[in-house]
Amino acid sequence: MALVSAVRGGRLSSSLHHHHNHLGSSSSSSLGRWGSLRPWKQLKSSSSSKGFTLLARYSQAQDLFTSRLQDRIDNLPKLVEDILQTSLSTGPRGALRMAQGIQAFIGVGGEWLTEASRSANSSTGLPTQLQLGLLSPLYLRRLFERMGATYIKLGQFIASTPTLFPADYVEEFQNCFDRAPAIPFAEIQQILRQELGKPIESVFEYVDPTPIASASIAQVHGARLRGSQEDVVIKVLKPGIEDMLVADLNFIYIVARILEFLSPDISRASLVGIVKDIRESMLEEVDFYKEAANIESFRRYLEAMGLTRQATAPRVYHQCSTKRILTMERLYGVPLTDLDSISSLVSSPEASLITALNVWFGSLLACESFHADVHAGNLWLLRDGRIGFLDFGIVGRIDPQTWAAMETFLASIATGEYESMASALIQMGATDTNVDAKAFASDLEKMFSSMKELDTEIVIATAREPSTNATAVSANVVVDERQMNALFLDVVRVSESYGLKFPREFALLLKQLLYFDRYTRLLAPNLNMLQDQRITIASNRRSNYRDNFS
């Protein structure tokens, strides 16, 4: 304080001494307080300059506002036309979906009120999830599940696209389950008669009335073909699903168009483009002609690469398949998480896993599309020892440039070369900024070190068979899903902090690798799937496939 006072005192006395001979004592006092006074002309000039600056800024702002207003006026007829056309294509089904939406909203709102009233009486107050109401990740996910097929699929899209949605929502929507009650078998029979255009008995000798599986979009029944006596499964699109999807997606599209019209910032984020991508993806999933084409493409890849003895996908019976029903060969096997059954079928579960990895990695490079949902229900070890790939409703397509960067990314994970990893991610991600590659690499290294700390628990379960008195032992892998998802999201978070935005295929690929990581921990704990010489990730497979197939 003494030093500060001394400095102040010295400056003050110097100022007084400097101006004393030119001004009176009262002026000296003013100068002592303010140091110096600018001449009036300088002040006047400065004020005028500021005035001109403010006027210029106001004029610029007014011009910008006028320009934006004019743009909106120019775009208004197109917006109205879009809304009218979309509303006409929706028709009366839109009113029905509105009523169903209100019912779902009231149901989830009631859950929120009940839980909020309980928390209100506690000393801690309302948790954050409850404070956000139905916009919180938890309650929004519940609302989506109640709204049915479209919103369940939208929730799954959110879960698989962390480059577009906030992390809290991506994590919560990992739990968006596609479960739906089975529809009566009489309705299934009616759809089969309509689609086949002939009596069911003329095509199928038998159709099991009890479904094998029932999801929001489709229901699957076992059956046997008349004549050949082959066992098949029939995937049947549930009635009204297409109408529901069209109504819901049209509504979402209209909302996106209005938001883009009202906010140029949202327009720059290409919200309508995102909605169009979602629409295309969902409508593909309910067009069984497209799923059949995906299966046939994968089967051609297996034949061209000489892999039919190692893996398969179900044969499609085109003569009894349509846009709404898909008849496929029935494959018998067990999921890759059923260790007990796998050990009874093959001597080396590790070898089976390596086969699955080689086939899937090869399809990334050599097939028109890759299987983008390899959870345990869709990846089986068959009774004949082959790997079975099922359900090609969700597939991905990757361009050569993205794959080249992805290949470098995978190689750098295996070798721990984080500068190469950073370079690959920069190449893969779209950005308008210059990325500090070294700092990015350092952050990636810190983040990936957490992968080694993921806890995996092998749960052993025993069950005694009453008829034989034999004890069956089965194992499953339990991984903290939140840990796995957190790791997945961290890659995106770190990258986004450097301005990178990835294509959706990157998220799909990374998610499949996490599935395979779980299978590795269960079936081959000592296997490093990215370094093991028995696993082939080779860029020349695409050309080999084309040569063999052409």
Features:
alpha+beta; 550 residues; globular; five-stranded antiparallel sheet; disordered N terminus; 11% strand; four-stranded mixed sheet
Task: Give an account of the 3D structure.
By secondary structure, the chain is of the alpha+beta class. The chain is built from 21 helices and 13 strands. Strands 1, 2, 3, 4 and 6 form a 5-stranded antiparallel β-sheet that branches. It has a 4-stranded mixed β-sheet with strand order 5-10-9-7, covered by helices on one side. It has a two-stranded antiparallel sheet with strand order 8-11. A hairpin with a 4-residue loop joins strand 9 (379-382) and strand 10 (387-389). Helix 4 (93-120) packs antiparallel against helix 6, helix 6 packs antiparallel against helix 7 (149-159) and helix 18 packs antiparallel against helix 19. The N and C termini lie far apart (88 Å).
First and last CA, distance:
88 Å
Radius of gyration using CA atoms only: 32 Å
Task: Quickly count the helices.
Answer: 21
Low-confidence segments, given as residue ranges, are 1-41, 455-481, 539-550
Give me the count of strands: 13
Largest sheet, if any?
Answer: 5 strands, antiparallel
In terms of DSSP E residues, the strand content is 5-15%
Bulk shape: globular
- Helix and strand content put the structural class at alpha+beta
Helix content: 55-70%
The averaged pLDDT comes out at 75
